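Data deposition worksheet. Section B asks for the primary sequence of the deposited chain exactly as it was used as input, without tags or linkers unless they were present during the calculation. Section C holds the resulting structure in token form. Section D is free text for depositor observations; keep each observation to a single sentence. Incomplete worksheets are returned to the depositor.
Section A, Depositor: J.P.
Section B:
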Amino acid sequence: MIRFSTQDDVVTFSVHAQPRAPKSQIVGEIEGVLKIRLAAPPVDGAANEELIYFLAKFFAVPRNAIEIISGATAKNKIVRVHGITGEKFMAKLSEG
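Section C:
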């Protein structure tokens, strides 16, 4: 199960990003951390931009609702999504 915290309509969780994948997709969970493959190289912020784009589309929120609050230059990141509840977060993840 993905570990996350909520406050009002904001969800914060950890992501393990794997750049240079054939396509961007969620591939599962590792010790409570969401693992996501990204179809972008880790060069000049391209992987972070792809992560923001992918999560915005996945959770159906605007791109500016996604914030990388820690780990911008690392594979392990802490991400904050504004505009969703914990229930919606879990429901979207269970949909796949």
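Section D:
The first strand starts at residue 4 and ends at 7.
DSSP finds two helices and six strands in the chain.
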